Amino acid sequence: MFTGIVEELGEVVAVEDLGDSPPAHAGGTPTRFRLRGPLVTEDAKHGDSIAVNGVCLTVVDTAEGEFTADVMAETLRRSSLGALAAGSRVNLERPMALGGRLGGHLVQGHVDGTGTITERTPGEHWEIVKVALPPHLARYVVEKGSITVDGVSLTVVDAADDYFTISLIPTTLDLTTLGIKKAGDPVNLEVDVLAKYVERLLGRGADDRDDIEAAKETAR
């Protein structure tokens, strides 16, 4: 689990198409990324997890402040990682240590979809950013609720059926990719996992009530 508190603004060093891999099911071919992140790699080893723009990736190896990670076609299809190239800046975060502070909110690193930045409105001390929202995710986004944007834990300011807005403080603008992204750029979105579990449980409850009523009718 992650918290959505970015530890380091890293950089993509190289992108390698794994052409010798089996054909991808959909959405591109598997890819190997080499990324620079001296802070997040100082204690990383093979098999560890590091979130890259909000996507939980497994470390293949590390060397001199860099690490490599393989990204499968499903991940490329569901996230914006396929748009990365050498020189792209990325948000990096290591998993939360057990007993550590939960500075943001519970983040799995499992991207639900991508949004698109549509507007940026600068203010004196912060900036309001509007993000177009895929329709199937709108029901999980609520005013003053939590959402992860490119791996950054943020509070929703306004929520609508097809967009939401967030307010970015100077620290977020300076230390994450959200300070350099422009209108038209894609961002990875992960909605609050608690909302998805609640929806599932409420749906299961309705199914259970239907089953009970059906059993009563059968017993009559």
Automatic annotation (TrEMBL):
Pathway: Cofactor biosynthesis; riboflavin biosynthesis; riboflavin from 2-hydroxy-3-oxobutyl phosphate and 5-amino-6-(D-ribitylamino)uracil: step 2/2
Domain (Lumazine-binding): residue spans on this chain: 1-105, 106-202
A UniProt-annotated Pfam family: Lum_binding
UniProt-recorded Gene Ontology molecular function terms: riboflavin synthase activity
CDD domains with a match to the protein in the record: Riboflavin_synthase_like (cd00402)
EC number of this enzyme: 2.5.1.9
Broad EC category: transferase
Reactions this protein catalyses: 2 6,7-dimethyl-8-(1-D-ribityl)lumazine + H(+) = 5-amino-6-(D-ribitylamino)uracil + riboflavin
Lumazine-binding repeat coordinates: 1-105, 106-202
Keywords noted in UniProt: Repeat, Riboflavin biosynthesis, Transferase
InterPro entries assigned to the protein according to its UniProt record, in alphabetical order: ATP_synth_asu-like_sf (IPR023366), Lumazine-bd (IPR001783), Lumazine-bd_dom (IPR026017), Riboflavin_synthase-like_b-brl (IPR017938)
Signal peptide: none
Function text: Catalyzes the dismutation of two molecules of 6,7-dimethyl-8-ribityllumazine, resulting in the formation of riboflavin and 5-amino-6-(D-ribitylamino)uracil.
The protein's name in its UniProt record: Riboflavin synthase
